[in-house]
Amino acid sequence: MKARTLFYCTQCGNETPKWAGKCPACGAWNTIVEQPAAKSRGSQNSPGRSRSAGPARACQLSEIDRVEEIRFSTGLRELDRVLGGGAVKGSLVLVGGAPGIGKSTLLLQICSVLCTASKVLYVSGEESLGQLKLRAQRLQVTGESLYLLSETNMEDILETIYETGPDILMVDSIQTLYQSSLDSPPGSIGQVKGCTLTLMDLAKRQGITVFIIGHVNKDGAIAGPKVLEHMVDCVLYFEGDAHNSYRILRAAKNRFGATNEIGVFEMQNRGLSEVENPSKMLLEGRPEGASGTCVTCVMEGVRPVLAEIQALIAPSSASSPRRTSNGFDFNRAVMLMAVLEKRGGMRLSGCDAFMNIIGGLTLDEPAADLAAVLALASSYVDRPVPGDLVAIGEVGLTGELRAVNHLEQRLSEVHRLGFGKCVVPKRNSGKMPHYDGLDLIQVNNIGEAVRAVLGKA
Ligand code: TYD
Ligand code: MG
Predict the structure, then answer these.
(1) Would you say 351 and 379 are in contact if contact means Cβ atoms under 8 Å apart?
(2) Whose CA is nearest to atom 9 of ligand 1?
(3) For ligand 1, mutation pick of 243, 247, 267 (most atoms within 8 Å of CB)
(4) I need a labelling partner for 160 at 20 to 30 A (CA). Which of 87, 195, 202, 352 fits?
(5) Over the stretch 274-321, which tens digit does the pLDDT of each residue have?
(6) Do residues 376 and 353 lie in contact, with contact meaning Cβ atoms separated by under 8 Å?
C-alpha cells in the first residue's frame, strides 16, 4: 500500500517513491510530504486536495469517504480503558507525569504485547541502549519486532523511523529531543512544540501511532505537557503518591473517548501490575475508631470507586486559621466548612482545618461533599464515624442534600465491599434500590446527617 504512494519535496519539488526525513535531492530536512499523486485516485480518495502544490479545496461532508477508526489493545486493560477502549491507529498520545512516577516503565512494558502484532520503535533520549536493555530484562520484555534507539536529534530520529518503518513509535521524553533548525535548547517551549508538531505530522501522514512522554515539572524551567495539550489527540496523566506504590492514570483530553475514566496500577519489582479492585486498594490500612475520617463513593467514568476522606480540625493560634486540602478542591472544602459553621453550628472559623484524600486520588465530584462534611464534623466533635458507614450526597449552600446520579451502581459497590450503612439524600428516595444487609439512612440536610451519624452535638 505504501509503495504506491508518491512523495515530493516541498522545497525543491523532487519526487520520491518513499517518504524520507531528508530530501535526497536538495538535502532539506522534513520537507517530504505525501502527494495525492494520480489525479484519478486523488480525486476519489481525498477530494479536498486537488493538486499537490496548490491550496487544499474545501469539500462537502458527503464527499469525504467514511473513515474507520482502527483500535488495538495495549495489553493493559487499565490503559485501554483510559484510552477509551484501546489505542487508535495514527493517534498521538501524550503521557505526562512527575519524574520517577513510572512513565518509561509503562510504555516499555506495553511494548511487549504491542510488538507481537506490530513493529515498535522505542526512542529514548534519556537512557542508553544498555540501560534500556536492563529495564527490558527487569520487565521481562522481549520481542523481535521491538527496536530501540538512544537518540535526541530529531532529524536522525526521523531518518531511523524512515529506515525502520515502525507501526508504533514511543518517544521518551519529548523534553530531551531537539531539531537543529531551531536555535533554542532541548526542553524549551519552541523545541518541545516543534518536535511534537513533527511527530504529529508523522502520525497523521504515515498512520504511525505515537506515544510521547512528557515530564511535568513544578518550577517551569522545562516546557511540560501543558504546552502540548492542545496539539495532541490524547493527554494522559500518570499520578501517584511518592510514598506508596499505587499509581493512577487519568485522561485529561481524549479526541477518541471520554475523559472521566481512571486506570489504577501498582508499581512492583517487575513493573506495573493492574489493580482490579481500586476501592479495596484505596481503603487499605483505614484507621479503626479514629475521628475525622469518612468513606464516600464516587463515579470514575462508569466505575464506582470508594475513597476515604480525612479531615483534621484543631484550635488555631494564628489570626487567620490555616486551611489546606489535598485531593479535594480547595474552594469547595472552604465552602463546606462555611456551610457546616452556619447550618451545623460548628465554630470552625477559629480552627485550622486540613483535608486529605487517601491514596493519591483526586475527588472532583459533588457526591463526595457529604463525606467531607462528616469527616470535618467528626474531627470537630472528636467522635468517630462508624467504620462500616459510607456517605454519598451533594451539599447545597443552605445545608440541604441534593440527589446524586448513578445511586444504584454506587450502592452496589458499597454493598460489594461489605459496608453495612450508607447515608444518602432523601431526594433520591423515588428510585432507592435495596440491598440485603445494607442499611440506608435517608437525610434531608447536613444537620440530620451529623445527628444520625455522630449523635447529638
Ligand atoms: P520510571 O519509569 O523510570 O519513571 P519516569 O519514566 O516516569 O521518570 O520509574 C522509575 C521508578 O520506578 C524508579 O524509582 C524505580 C521504580 N521501578 C520499580 O519499582 N519497579 C520496576 O520494575 C521498574 C522498572 C521501576
Ligand atoms: Mg523515564
Answers:
(1) no
(2) 102
(3) 267
(4) 87
(5) 998 888 887 888 888 999 999 999 998 878 999 999 999 999 988 889
(6) yes
